[in-house]
Amino acid sequence: MRVFLLALVAPLVALVLSSCATVQKLDAGGDVHALLISIRDDDRATFDALVDRKALRLEIEDRLVAEARRDGRVPTGLAAVLAPALSKLAGDTLIQPDVFRSVAAYYGYRRDTKIPGPVGISTRLRQMPDGRVCAVTKPEGPCLLIFAHAPDGRWKLSGFEGDIGMLQIRR
Predict the structure, then answer these.
(1) Three-point CA angle 58, 27, 119, nearest 5°
(2) Which of 31, 32, 40, 103 is deepest in the core (most CB within 10 A)?
(3) pLDDT digit string (tens) for 136-163?
(4) For the segment 25-69, what is each residue's pLDDT rounded down to a tens digit?
């Protein structure tokens, strides 16, 4: 009898646990959809509401400082002094809708492309072990955009793991 109950309960538990991840991705899909629309439409207010500016800026700054230190053309001491200030300026400058347009294009979303709804977007989100989700182009593809669940209940862009060169300032 116990074996029968275990055989019946185990798949049910697995189904419930997998549905939690699906619900989380669906929830995030709405905010990721809104972020993509804000990037397409250059809607700064919505973009700002859906970005954890502090977390994203710190990540971009850390990567810019690391790249400056690795670059053999910049003396290590000079990189250590200048890189944090320059990266803070660059981080603030890079966090805007038009700069992230090339990242959206990487995912296939251009200005003239119809952006799928939240359910469609949720199929391109991967659950991460720490509770965040990331956007992918294919199931085993790389994560470029990372979203964290914020205290206000929204999913906000909190990380960028793509090539920094993808973040292009438009003139």
Answers:
(1) 115
(2) 32
(3) 988 788 888 999 999 999 999 999 988 8
(4) 899 999 999 999 999 999 999 999 999 998 998 888 888 777 777
**Neighbour count for residue 121 (Cβ, 10 Å):** 24
The residue assigned the tokens 């790249």 is 67
pTM above 0.70, yes or no: yes
Judge contact between 150 and 156, C-beta under 8 A.
yes
* DSSP code per residue over the chain: -HHHHHHHHHHHHHHHHHHHHHHHHHHHHHHHHHHHHHHHHT-HHHHHHTB-HHHHHHHHHHHHHHHHHH-TTS-HHHHHHHHHHHHHHHHHHH-STTTTHHHHHHTT--TTSPPP-HHHHHTTEEE-TTS-EEE-SSTTSPP-EEEEE-TTS-EEEEEE-S-GGG-----
Q: Among 24, 22, 16, which residue's Cα sits nearest to residue 132? A: 24
Backbone phi, psi, residue 121, to 5°: -65, -40
Domain boundaries defined on the chain: 2-51+98-166, 52-94
